[in-house]
Amino acid sequence: MKKKSKNLIPYLMITPYLLHFLLFVSFPVLFSIFLIFHRWNIISPMEFIGMGNFSRLAQDSYFWQSILNTLLFLVIHIPLQLIVALAFALLLNQPLKYIGVFRASYFLPVIVSGVVVTILWQQLFGYENGMLNRILMLFRVPRIGWLTNPNVAMPSIAVMATWKNVGFYIILFLTGLQTVPKTYYEAADMEGAGYWAKFFYITLPAINPTIFMVVVLSTIGGFSLFIEPYVMTGGGPLNRTLSTVLYIYKQGFFFYHMGYAATMGVTLTAIILTVVMIQKKFVEKNS
Amino acid sequence: MKKVLSYALLAVGGIFFIYPFIWMVSASLSPEKDIANLILFPSQFVFSNYAQVYEKIPIVSAFYNSLFVALSVTGLVLVFSSMTGYALSHMYFKGRDALFYLIVFTMSLPFQLTLIPQYILMVKFGWVDTYLALIVPYVISGLGIIIFRQYFKTIPKDLIDAARIDGCGEFKILFRILWPNAKPAIITVAILTFMSSWNEVLWPIIVIRNEKLMTLPQLITLFAVGGRAESQLGVKLAAAVLLALPVVIAYSIFQKYFIDSMASSGLKE
Q1: Are residues B49 and B238 in contact, defined by beta-carbon separation less than 8 angstroms?
Q2: In degrees, to the nearest 5, what angle opens at C-alpha B110 toward C-alphas B107 and B114?
Q3: Helices A27-35 and B111-125 meet at what angle, rounded to 10?
Q4: Nearest to B237 among A35, A91, A123 (CB)
Q5: Closest CA–CA distance from residue A167 to any residue of chain B (Å)
Q6: pLDDT digits (tens, 9 = 90+) for B148-195
Q7: Which of these, A29, A47, A215, B129, could form a disulfide with A39 (CB 3.0-4.6 Å)?
Q8: Domains, in order of start, for chain B
Q9: How many angstroms separate the CA atoms of A261 and B92, rounded?
């Protein structure tokens, strides 16, 4: 009897996890797969519509616009993030004083809620009196419609997102840089290699895993954009900042199109996984 | 020379990341007509923006809601993740490796996949507009389990075996022996969980519609989006300052723990 109860203890320990998994992971995933073949507004009975949601999705210009918007966001956000984060990590990875103070100040936007950053930057981006346009006017440059010009709005959000997150990636790169063995640089010094040669032939290959991680995390972040367009632009101008999550939110929680919103959730998941796979292939090829 | 340039660049970066926050605080304390200027310090202090936030939205109850939700989630995550982490690191049972892979796999699923069905679950449970909707779905953290598992592995098996021979129960071992020896893991999981719960916006917006139950970031988001701030910049900024303040205070005291914890969350991916 004693032995038997002892064997049950591990299962007792993992019971909370398993219950949570059944309820909040496996059921939702299975139910999603069921929902995508139905039309349902939660209240009236569910209606089977076969592939109806998918044929609607294929023709839904808002959905594809939101994917395009996200891709534009990523094309600006990822390189910017990599360059800024790596540059500051290299600066911090020197025997200097007050490194801790600098590190802590770059990290501040990371810990603050995205809502705070969004409200703050909404003012900085303001057309009439925003700080950025005030600075431009000091140099007699005409005002820019940071959030009102359809071609500029998404790049503006990409810059803001970089400002918010880059402190986190600076720390990741700094950790990565500190794992590169010093002997590599000493050997290169003996060969008379310059700064950039060392950077391209030693540093970059050594931190390749960190670069990949930054790219993947930024990609997932880009496909999760919600609060930024929700607060700043409502998805406009001309739907050019409509993010997929914002569109799912509107379909699901304004129109109660549960089947269709679930279909977009499943499709978006497939798109995210595909993009990450492509990035993985690309990194493996280059290492 | 190189050193001077490095310091200069680092300082420019510091201004770039810090100045907007200083401006935000100053602007929220300034009269509306001054906000458009590049202020560093208010020319005259006014608290009317804060008074208006207090009058227009139930900000105090939202603060307590957020605190209650974030503390509950953090406490439960610590208990449940350390239980699972203990089983995975110091116990032998059928399916242990499979469970570990399941946890890692689950962590890689984007939230977009489960958002809609989870909401439907809340409706069917009758949890919409209750704290349960804000707490129960978040009581398990895959990352928390992995952090505890890694850390418990570094605790010598002898310590646990000795306690078992003394007739200590497994729960007593976990909370009386492992917990006091795993403070860094507890701090890391606590900070990560508390922060993500405190800052969460999308889920509260979906499941809470009763203003009295809203969390702080949710209430302030809806305040900024809806018409109640009446496009007064100062009032919006004051609300944002109130939302940032608790986190910034905690951060300025435990800054190193915050940075280390968040960095470890990235490295575990």
Answers
A1: yes
A2: 100
A3: 100
A4: A123
A5: 9
A6: 999 999 999 999 999 989 888 899 999 999 999 999 999 999 999 999
A7: A47
A8: 1-46 (no CATH), 48-267 (1.10.3720.10)
A9: 42
How many A/B residue pairs have CB atoms within 8 Å?
240
Using pLDDT thresholds of 50, 70 and 90, give the confidence band for residue A76.
Answer: very high
Closest alpha carbon within chain A to B96: A10
Please report the ipTM that was assigned to this predicted complex: 0.91
Q: Residue B248 corresponds to which amino acid? A: V
Q: Answer whether B79's CB lies under 8 Å from B86's CB.
A: no
What is the spatial distance between Cα A230 and Cα A233, in angstroms, rounded to a whole number?
Answer: 6
Q: From residue A17, how far is each of A25, B103, B135, B179 by CA, in Å? A: 11, 9, 15, 19
How far is the first Cα of chain B from the last one, in angstroms, to the nearest whole number? 39
Which residue type is seen at A19?
L
Q: Note whether A116 contacts B201, CB cutoff 8 Å.
A: no
Among B1, B4, B7, B10, the strongest candidate for a mutation testing the A interface, having the largest count of A CBs within 10 A, is B10
> Residue A47: what are its φ and ψ, rounded to 5°?
-125, 125
User: CA A171, B253, B236: angle at the middle one, nearest 5?
Assistant: 85
A107 → closest Cβ in B7, B112, B259 = B259
Burial of A27 (0-12, 13-18, 19+ CB in 10 A): middle
A261 alpha-carbon distance from chain centroid: 21
**Closest Cα in chain A, distance from residue B156 (Å):** 19
Class (C level, CATH) for A54-285: mainly alpha
Measured in whole angstroms, the distance separating CA A227 from the mean position of its chain's CA atoms is: 12
pLDDT grade for A191, boundaries at 50, 70 and 90? confident
Of A21, A108, A224, the CB nearest to B17: A108
Token pair, residue A16, equals 């909370």
Residue of A nearest to B89 (CA): A10
The answer to whether A92 touches A102, Cβ cutoff 8 Å, is yes
Percent of chain A with pLDDT over 70: 98
Which residue in A20, A109, A171 is closest to B139 by CB distance?
Answer: A20
CA distance B251 to chain A (A): 8
The CA distance from A228 to A247, in Å, is 13
> Read out DSSP for A141-209?
PPP--TTTSTTTHHHHHHHHHHHHHHHHHHHHHHHHHHTS-HHHHHHHHHHT--HHHHIIIIIHHHTHH
Based on DSSP, count helices (H) and strands (E) in chain B, helices before strands.
Answer: 14, 0
Best mutation site among A8, A34, A119 for testing chain B: the one with the most B CBs within 10 Å? A119
Chain A hits for B148, CB-CB cut-off 8 Å, are none
Task: Tell which phi-psi region holds residue B201, choosing left (phi > 0), alpha (psi between -120 and 50) or beta.
Answer: alpha
Of A16, A106, A128, the CB nearest to B140: A16
